[in-house]
Specification:
Blueprint lengths: L1 H30 L3 E8 L8 E2 L9 E2 L4 E9 L2 E8 L6 H10 L8 E5 L5 E2 L16 H19 L3 E10 L6 E3 L10 E8 L5 E7 L11 E2 L4 H12 L2 E5 L7 E3 L12 H19 L3 E4 L3 E11 L3 H8 L12 E11 L2 E5 L3 E2 L1 H10 L5 E4 L8 E2 L11 H5 L6 H13 L11
Parallel strand pairs: 3-12, 5-6, 11-13, 18-20, 19-21
Antiparallel strand pairs: 1-4, 1-8, 2-7, 4-5, 8-10, 8-15, 9-14, 10-11, 16-17, 17-18
The chain binds zinc ion.
């Protein structure tokens, strides 16, 4: 009798268990507020373009690989943020404001736009035209690209789905970058976040954050440089969209490779090897990733003004070689932004911070892992500590910087952001 009862109960019990587990997973999905989506759009110029990075008058003959704007939209509750990284030398603030003004799905100030800093993409600033006094920007391409990026954000936001975040970082990724100014000052941290669908796990996107100038190539072919092979390696292994954000790579963190193996600027094999190595290290570090279900999402930013001290830049603006213009008082508005995704912390840098500046900012940050998004939300040239500004060692970087007060003002605003004390209520001038 007991046996019969247990036989009768078994199917009922099993059915109950199955049903309850279904209810649990349905509950999880319903309770899961964190969502993510990703996409990319081809922004390669159709016409020959003046290539940005290195000298003037370097015109493209073709594209070795396509340049993309890569986008991740994340959402939790009423908070929605877009993170975009473009295969470009930099995206100046006035271009970012143009893009933001065309985005409908994400609040303008929550659209974060960075550049990988490839030295083999089209001029976005005006500095690399046929001569020093002639802009190299193809305005038609630029207007079209700004529209494409805004549409990419809106299209991506349509695909938001419940997701989890997997974070990983390692502080000792060597053999990829080197500091050619002060070799001992080198940030070898690789920080990675992978967004995976909450049900039927599938990679939506992988953000890779590592400091290194993509400047191996210097010829007449458009290319994303080493990030092209990083994307290929990560996307082939994981699927989804791989997004690369540079770090504090200014003065002068560049790729570590044997320069004797090919003529300078033509070392395609080195670019491939460096990109694949960074991709492989990304995949390795993700093995030990920490999965965070429904991570909290926060964003805070501070706008501030910096004096445009660089006389050459002021002249180039007057001559309309550089687009955009300072405010009537001679200052430029810029911004820093802090994003929290669960335990991880992201901080934007509006230009090319030197690695010692990057180390200092990371010491101020509390998250784990820490992501420093270089060349993001502005393109203000090198960002040097005042004590380094003007040194013979950094004469190049000092000449390619908005000015000596940029770093202290940025750090002041970083501190206020990191103390979570304000969101644009009391900008520091
Ligand atoms: Zn640079």
């Amino acid at each position: 009798m007991l046996k019969v009862l247990s036989l009768l109960l078994r199917p009922i019990g099993t059915a109950f268990l199955v049903l309850s587990s279904l209810l649990v997973s349905a509950d999880c999905v319903n309770a899961q507020q964190f969502k993510a989506a990703a996409g990319k759009v081809d922004i390669t110029p159709v016409q020959p373009a003046f290539i940005a990075g290195y000298g003037n008058n370097r015109k493209s003959v073709d594209a070795h690989d396509r340049l993309f704007a890569r986008c991740i939209v994340i959402e939790r509750g009423s908070q929605r943020i877009a993170l975009v990284s473009c295969d470009l030398i930099g995206v100046p603030r006035f271009e970012i404001l143009n893009i933001r003004s065309m985005v409908n799905s994400v609040a303008a100030e929550n659209v974060i736009i960075g550049a990988t800093h490839t030295h083999s993409g089209p001029d976005t600033l005006g500095m690399w035209g046929p001569a020093l006094t002639v802009s190299g920007v193809d305005k038609k391409w630029l207007i079209h690209t700004e529209k494409q990026i805004a549409e990419l954000v809106d299209q991506t936001a349509l695909n938001l789905e419940p997701a989890i975040a997997r974070f990983a970082s390692t502080s000792d990724v060597r053999g990829i970058s080197k500091n050619i100014r002060v070799p001992a000052i080198l940030d070898t941290q690789l920080a990675v976040v992978q967004f995976v669908t909450a049900v039927n796990p599938r990679t939506i996107a992988t953000i890779v954050n590592y400091a290194c100038h993509p400047e191996i190539l210097n010829n007449h072919h458009i290319t994303a440089d080493f990030p092209h092979w990083l994307y290929e390696t990560v996307e082939t292994a994981l699927g989804g969209t791989c997004v690369y954000f540079n770090g504090a790579q200014g003065g002068m963190v560049t790729a570590a490779y044997d320069v004797s193996t090919a003529p300078r600027g033509e070392n395609w094999a080195a670019a491939e090897a460096i990109g694949k190595m960074l991709g492989t290290r990304t995949l390795e570090v993700l093995h030990d990733a920490t999965a965070i279900t429904d991570p909290e999402l926060t964003i805070a930013k501070r706008k501030f003004h910096i004096p445009l001290e660089n006389a050459r830049y002021r002249t180039l603006i007057k001559m309309k070689v550089f687009s955009g213009a300072p405010d009537p008082d001679g200052t430029l508005e810029t911004e820093v932004c802090r994003i929290g995704i669960g335990p991880a912390e992201f901080l934007t840098i509006p230009g090319e911070a030197l690695p010692n500046v990057g180390f200092y900012i990371k010491r101020l940050m509390h998250g784990n892992p820490k992501f420093l998004l270089g060349l993001t939300n502005d393109f203000l040239g090198y960002i040097l500590a005042p004590e380094d500004f003007g040194l013979e060692l950094y004469s190049y970087e000092s000449g390619q910087s908005a000015g000596s007060s940029l770093e202290p003002l940025m750090i002041q605003n970083d501190k206020l952001l990191l103390e979570r004390s304000a969101t644009e209520t009391k900008p520091v001038h």
